[in-house]
UniProtKB/TrEMBL annotation:
Class in the EC hierarchy, top level: isomerase
Family matches, as PANTHER family: DTDP-6-DEOXY-D-GLUCOSE-3,5 EPIMERASE, THYMIDINE DIPHOSPHO-4-KETO-RHAMNOSE 3,5-EPIMERASE
Organism, scientific name: Shewanella amazonensis (strain ATCC BAA-1098 / SB2B)
Annotated pathway: Carbohydrate biosynthesis; dTDP-L-rhamnose biosynthesis
One GO location term (cellular component): cytosol
Highest taxon in the source lineage: Bacteria
UniProt name for this protein: dTDP-4-dehydrorhamnose 3,5-epimerase
Assigned protein family: Belongs to the dTDP-4-dehydrorhamnose 3,5-epimerase family.
Keywords, comma-separated and alphabetical: Isomerase
Function description: Catalyzes the epimerization of the C3' and C5'positions of dTDP-6-deoxy-D-xylo-4-hexulose, forming dTDP-6-deoxy-L-lyxo-4-hexulose.
Length: 176
């Protein structure tokens, strides 16, 4: 696999080695030893999967007391995936990076602890899978409004996104 550093060094774009022939393709979507050597020594404890239709925006979420490293993959469709640095001591605090991930390009995004995460569905639907380094604690989840003007995320949105009630009511980013 190839590991590329994004505009925020700790967020990594992972491009697996894909072997294709007339039957289809094969690639390793997760290999702990190689991941530890090339990306970060992370132990994942939970896998999540979501199905979303075109125009859905999920995020921006994180857990406060139980932060999670995440490895994002797309099993079907295409998304624009975003990570926002919410670490007050970081030189990239309040900055964001976004990458297009799809079932066709097989790319993955590693988002370490200390980042809010969200994505927007560009295809008719998308199945997103992500590994997490800590368990989900609903009482610990926090969020930031997807359209916060201080973050100025350049979402590739057509019209108004489909949001959960919780995401529609999320607060603006408040620098610490």
């Amino acid at each position: 696999m190839q590991v590329l550093t994004t505009a925020i060094n700790e967020v990594k774009l992972i491009i697996p080695s894909v072997f294709e022939d007339e039957r289809g393709y094969f690639f390793e979507s997760w290999q702990q030893q190689r991941f530890a050597e090339l990306v970060a020594p992370v132990t994942f404890v939970q896998d999540n999967q979501s199905l979303s239709k075109r125009g859905t925006l999920r995020g921006l979420h994180w857990q406060e007391a139980h932060p999670q490293d995440k490895l994002i993959s797309v099993l079907s469709g295409t998304i624009f995936d975003v990570a926002v640095d919410i670490r007050p001591e970081s030189p990239t605090y309040g900055k964001w990076v976004g990458e297009t991930l799809s079932a066709e390009n097989h790319r993955q995004l590693f988002i370490p602890k200390g980042f809010a995460h969200g994505f927007y569905v560009l295809s008719e639907s998308a199945i997103v899978s992500y590994k997490c380094s800590d368990f989900y604690h609903p009482e610990d989840e926090r969020s930031i409004r997807w359209d916060d003007p201080s973050l100025a995320i350049q979402w590739p949105i057509e019209g108004l996104p489909l949001l959960s009630a919780k995401d529609a009511m999320a607060p603006l980013f408040t620098p610490r």
